[in-house]
From TrEMBL:
InterPro entries (alphabetical): DNA_Rep/Repair_Clamp_Loader, P-loop_NTPase
Gene3D superfamilies: P-loop containing nucleotide triphosphate hydrolases (3.40.50.300)
Domain of life of the organism encoding this protein: Bacteria
Record protein name field: DNA polymerase III subunit delta
Taxonomy of the source species: Bacteria, Pseudomonadati, Pseudomonadota, Alphaproteobacteria, Sphingomonadales
Signal peptide (residue range): none
Length: 317
């Protein structure tokens, strides 16, 4: 495993593999875009003795977002593009548990990866808890988590924690220079700031052309938007039918902009800034499971920023 920032979790995993007693459940925690899923896959391959180049292995079980419904599932079966569900459902956990009633196919060990564990439905999480309380012999669970606080405390307490730290800006910039050499320096540093220590988020910033969005978010936050013009431009920059990842990126950009601004804004403008930041945190957490209208969500984000900007204007005046 050569990803930057994985040295400490890698060392802890290696020590556990070589010990006599291997913990049965691991929580891989850190912000999105740090490579936790790649770590989980490589760790699972090590555990079951699979070749590093092997794409699939019968003793590595992956739970992630499935098809949204039966119609989308048929599209997937036909090899067509399909829409993903917003959560990991209980039927997926039940199917995994049925598989755990059998012996591993090619050895004595089996790995179960859940990504992201934060987005399990409540019933799915409760069902998983039973497997964590009475783990099948030879089974190791790897739970990838971007927001560990969303997990049931009883799940967290049964897992050994592996923390994945955010990277320094210089490390993210060096990675972007390698992965996106055609991007100019100014755009690259904008991506670094937007990524806030996450190389995956920084690369997404470039891939999704989020620079115009970031500029508008900053302008609304600085100036407010009494005429609603900037909010209209923000909606146009996001697009009429943004996908979930673009909406999530917008929320993350707005939240990061507010977090940075809280460090510098006048004390009298702090309450509105903090309230807006808390609302964005809530929206980010709810988005995977709530069926929000994209247009209304974009306007809500713009309005939160505009109120914060107006509060700053009053403080300056």
């Amino acid at each position: 495993m050569t990803l930057i920032g994985h040295e400490a979790p890698r060392s802890a995993w290696q020590s556990a593999l070589s010990s006599e007693r291997m913990h049965h459940a691991w929580l891989l925690a850190g912000k999105a875009g740090l490579g936790k899923m790649r770590f989980a896959l490589e760790a699972a391959r090590e555990l079951v003795g699979a070749a590093t180049s092997q794409a699939e292995h019968p003793d590595i079980v992956l739970l992630t977002y499935g098809a949204k419904d039966d119609k989308e599932d048929r599209k997937r079966a036909d090899g067509k593009p399909f829409e993903l569900a917003r959560s990991i459902r209980i039927d997926q956990v039940r199917a995994m548990q049925r598989k755990l009633n059998t012996r591993p196919s090619m050895g004595e060990r089996r790995a179960v990866i859940i990504d992201p564990a934060d987005d399990m439905e409540r019933n799915a999480a409760n069902a998983l808890l039973k497997s964590l309380e009475e783990p099948p012999v030879g089974t190791t669970f790897l739970l990838v988590s971007h927001r560990p606080a969303k997990l049931l405390p009883t799940i967290r307490s049964r897992c050994r924690l592996l923390r994945f730290p955010a990277l320094a800006d210089s490390q993210v910039e060096a990675l972007l220079a390698e992965k996106a050499p055609s991007v100019d320096v100014e755009a690259r540093w904008a991506a670094v700031r937007a990524g806030a220590g996450s190389p995956g988020a920084a690369l997404a910033f470039i891939d999704q052309d989020l620079g115009p969005l970031a500029s508008l978010i900053g302008q609304i936050l600085r100036e407010g938007d009494p005429s609603f013009v900037l909010r209209g431009k923000l909606a146009g920059a996001i697009g009429s039918r943004p996908d979930r990842e673009r909406l999530r990126a917008t929320l993350e950009l707005a939240r990061a902009a507010l977090a940075d601004d809280i460090e510098q804004c006048p004390r009298t403008a702090l309450p509105e800034r903090i309230a807006a930041h808390d609302a964005l945190v809530r929206l980010t957490g709810e988005m995977p499971t709530y069926n929000y209208d994209p247009g209304l969500m974009v306007m809500e984000v713009g309005t939160l920023l505009a109120r914060a900007g107006a509060a700053s204007e009053r403080a300056d005046g």
